[in-house]
Automatic annotation (TrEMBL):
GO molecular function: monooxygenase activity
Keyword vocabulary terms for this entry: Monooxygenase, Oxidoreductase
UniProt key word Oxidoreductase: yes
Domain of life of the organism encoding this protein: Bacteria
Protein's name according to its UniProt entry: Quinol monooxygenase YgiN
Domain ABM: 2-96
UniProt keyword annotation of Oxidoreductase present: yes
InterPro entries, per database record: ABM_dom, AI-2_Isomerase_LsrG, Dimeric_a/b-barrel
Species this chain originates from: Inquilinus ginsengisoli
Length: 100
């Protein structure tokens, strides 16, 4: 299994718009072969350590590196990238393996 933690930072004040675009691809991603989990998360109310008001984190689980690679080149991901590019200030993607 492969885990992915992706931190997406919107341009100031644009997180809601970026999340709106992101949510449009969730059904297509869930339908991808090898997708176990895929969804956005934001800071919990009252959290001491925060990513901030412009950031959300995508938590992903994939059956294999091959499934993740196929996801990254899926047509709906390319379309999302085009729609989101003007809303996005930055992103950091961490691909992880379970600790053994």
């Amino acid at each position: 299994m492969i885990h992915v933690i992706a931190m997406l930072t919107a341009k100031p004040g644009q997180r809601a718009a970026l999340l709106e675009e992101f949510r449009k691809i969730i059904p297509a991603v869930h339908a991808e072969q090898g997708c176990i989990e895929y969804g956005p998360a934001v800071d919990a109310e009252g959290s001491a350590d925060r990513f901030g008001d412009d950031t959300f984190v995508v938590i992903e689980k994939w059956e294999s590196p091959e499934a993740l690679k196929a996801h990254s080149v899926a047509p709906h991901m390319k379309a999302y990238g085009e729609r989101a590019k003007d809303l996005l200030a930055g992103r950091a993607v961490h691909v992880l393996a379970p600790a053994g």
